Amino acid sequence: MAPKIHSSEDARRLARKRLPWMVFDYIDGAAGAETGAARNRAAFDNLELRPRILRDVSDRSLSVPLWDKPTKAPFGISPMGMCNLSGPGADMMLARLAARENVPLGVSTVASTAMEPLIEAAEGNAWFQLYFSGDGVGTFKLVERAEAAGYDTIVLTVDVAEVGRRPRELRHGFTMPFKIGPKQFIDFALHPRWSLTSLYAGKPQMANFLMAGYDFDRTESRAKADWDTLRRLRDMWPGKLVVKGVLDAEDSVALKTAGVDAIQVSSHGSRQLDSAPPPILELAKIRDAVGPDYPLFYDTGLRSGEDIVKAYAQGANFTFLGRILQFAIAAGGEDGLQELWSVLKNETSITLAQIGKRSLIEDDAANR
């Protein structure tokens, strides 16, 4: 019988045992000395939620509106590259979860499953995440392909002008496309359960580029992207446009003015700039800058239902989970993923009860 998952930390602990070191550190690692990740965790821990009493909170809802459609959970799935490293078929597990919960699946440019089968499995609940790279020719080919596949939302990620240095990842010689040398072979031999199942399923690859007619270099500079790039994308994309990786209030106002439909406040899971400010603290400043009605999404460092409630309290309209979902897959496959998802929903619901709320979107005055 698989060990029970009672929290995201349980999933991480089990994943650490089962994954090869290079895979675990690729998923878990952050930029530099990882002080940015630690400061973001400390910022979450220092935020308080005030308990309220004697309010009828017996009937609670976790549904929130997203693009005017109700979701079954107040969090979606962040775009993550090479998810199938956490377990064979991980991308499709996440897609099926998105379909069941009516939440968006972020499909990464460097996903290990192509964009077309993922939006189909997600029953339309999928957003395509876009990296601008090189001269942009390949980037805009992907935009056209996403439109043809039926995507209605593009998420332009803007905080990777250059790929951040992640020492834990570099020490293992992690590369994409995936390469196996003597060091990696020993690592895999010491984790036979993962190695045998992954070998049977086939080496994970950047699936969106297998038949694209050009190669994608993960380390290629993305520094040429500028406001003209954004304008070009806005002009050619008829659907919703989200810009992800924003931590500055002035930039946020400029994005709103440029016709961006929503902003995702994020430090890329603390994987880019070690000295970046904690995104959870910038969220409230950005909310003040863009006004009460502009859509703001949040990711980075969410580990529990209480964290999710805190993000909404700071001004988020929706939140996204990342690596903890990969840990759950590594710990227990699709059952582990569903187990952690249920834990997080339960934690969120219990937190709402403790602070005297029936939903994440109600006014505090509603229960007085």
UniProtKB/TrEMBL annotation:
Glyoxylate binds at residues 26, 131, 166, 268, 271. Its cofactor is FMN. The active site is at 268 (proton acceptor). GO terms for molecular function: FMN binding; L-lactate dehydrogenase (NAD+) activity. GO terms for cellular component: plasma membrane. Keywords: Flavoprotein, FMN, Oxidoreductase. This is Alpha-hydroxy acid oxidase. It comes from Yoonia algicola.
